[in-house]
Amino acid sequence: GIYYVKAIVEGNDYYGQIESEIKSFEIKKIEIDLSNLTWENESYIYDGTPKIVTLEGVILDDELMEITYEENEFINVGEYITTANIILYKPEYYVIINSPNLTYNWKIEVAQNEFIEEVTIANWEYGQNASIPTGESKFGEVYFLYSDSIDGDYKSTMPTIPGQYYLKGCVDGSSNYMGICSDVIEFEILKNENTFVIDLSISNWVYEENPILEVNSLYGDVIVLYSDSIDGEFTTTVPKNAGIYYVKAIVEGNDYYGQ
Fold it and tell me: Of the candidates 71, 73, 77, 75, which has an alpha carbon nearest to the alpha carbon of residue 109?
């Protein structure tokens, strides 16, 4: 503060009192230089974690002052304004010089997305449990789309009929991150491998009797064929005349299983 001073000499029996002129003087506050304080960053990329902006630098004595902030922590994409408040504990003795700008504009920007686990799916056989596609993105939930041609219309319905198919995983974009789709991959639903669960067996029979045979397959209807020569033409006509014959069983294939 500003103060005033004077000097006096009191008088006595030998000399009189004298008094000096009044002089002014000042006791200055100690200066705290904050020129080394700067805001740490102007821009961040969204990553799902809180972003905090503060003034960075060296404060000579933490016991002399404190810095508080208003609205300096955010997670989502946006443009923000943060205010710093510098509080002096003993303002009667100290003064701040070269203070930084206490209002700060900064932003969090939209993030690019990517797959951190590639989209995959295993082939499976018709009639068995369908394979579950997998894939994981950095942001967002992956959903899967299917098509019967690489450049065709992709839908969320999983195919069920044997054949070649195509799969891609996608993530919808948001205000925080970009949308993304994976590369297309090919997979196959295989036809069932058919087999005879009861092997063909037939007994000789007497003329004018009916044949007695057993046969059954895992899938489909069994067709029994007969011929009078091993390399001849086989038909469904049951032999009637006495003789040596040959028999075989077939199951015709379809879209779901092989012959």
Answer: 77
52-87 burial code (b ≥16 CB/10 A, e <16): ebbbeeebeeeebbeeebeebebeebeebebebebe
The Cα 93–Cα 102 span in angstroms is 22
Nearest of 217, 219, 215 to residue 256 by alpha carbon:
219
**CA dihedral of 253, 249, 192, 256, whole degrees rounded to 10:** 30
Whether the per-residue pLDDT at 34 is higher than 80: the answer is yes
Residue with tokens 């904050």: 34
Comparing CA positions, the residue from 109, 101, 258, 104 lying closest to residue 191 is 258
> How many CB atoms are located within 10 Å of the residue 98 CB?
11
The percent helix, strand, coil of the chain (3-state, each to 5) is 0, 45, 55
Q: Using alpha carbons, select from 51, 86, 50 the residue that is nearest to residue 69.
A: 86
What are the structure tokens assigned to 7, written together? 């000097």
Average pLDDT over residues 119-143: 94
pTM, rounded to two decimals: 0.67
Distance CA 205, CA 211 (A): 6
> Checking phi first, is residue 34 left (phi over 0); if not, alpha (psi -120 to 50) or beta?
alpha
Contact 149, 168 (CB under 8 A): no
223 close to 249: Cβ distance less than 8 angstroms = yes
Contact 60, 42 (CB under 8 A): no
Token pair for 161: 């009929």
